[in-house]
Write the structure tokens for this entry.
Amino acid sequence: MMQQAAIPLGIDVRLLAEGPDVSAAQVVPDTTVGDYRDLATLTDFVDGADALTFDHEHVPTRHLDAVGASVAVRPGPSALVYAQDKALMREKMNELGIACPDYAICDGEDELVAFAEAQGWPVIAKTSRGGYDGKGVWKLDGPDEAGLPFENLAETSAGERVRIVAEEFIDFSRELSAIVVRSPSNQVVAYPISETRQADGICVETITPAPGLPEAEATALQEMAIRIATELGVVGVLAVELMQARDGRIVVNELAMRPHNTGHWSIDGARTSQFENHLRAVLDLPLGSPELRDDVVVMANVLGGAEEDLTGALLHVFARDRAARVHLYGKGVKPGRKVGHVTCGGTDLEDVRRRAWHAANYLMGDPDA
């Protein structure tokens, strides 16, 4: 998706991919297959480049420090570490006075139990590094489960220390996403706040703007995300994942410093997509408008299901709704795997949702859903 944004801007993109058939490698001609955890591979890869950026946070921090002498690393390791390490992120948010769940960094089972007994069960436990899409996260209902997060806990392959972060269980009514983009010149733009819906730890839907969120509250969340980006020195996209508790309070769940799944709607639903604005920020170009193209935009993720011929299924999807926008990721269909998304826009939320989900369900092999 960054390559698609780069083409009309005349930006040459070079890709370091973990395999020859991954989605990005199918569309980026200048692709190197290699291991981003290997410093020599990374050093050779960045030779001659103007800037290095990411589509995930797992590149070892110390490697980014090393290559930063020869290429602009954006976001830099001093910022990216707060997306890489949930323990450091919680500590930094606490320092900045940003609302987060109550937490404790636990080095052993006894510390986790002590936190939970004081906090009240259940609690959420997370590995400080490496988890994503629900992996490395546990909901613990009692002390007999407290050992689960510590089983096989060790350093990552890159050598960083992995700890367990225990957090209060937030009985949330919904999840929200605040996406902002910041350039080295300190220009910042903020996208409208989205409501996100999850299933099994995977984002399955976004609604933008978040329904029922008062304008003043939405503005405050955008300002908070801008403050985080500025305080941490983020360059590029910052996605702030939020939880809204049933009592109304909103707390920061996680940070991501890259184009984010909760912002994929912006490709077709915003004046400037998060991918184009990320590239503009990385190269310190003036940022584009994040305004909506429609009153409401809904993105429905397509997960692998009974339909294997996704391109063939487009015959029905486009005949039914010529305004639906579909992005397929070039991945093999496997149950539950994200293989694409559908974006629809309009004026009536329920109608837009119905259209998006009819298309997504058809692509998942469930035409009657």
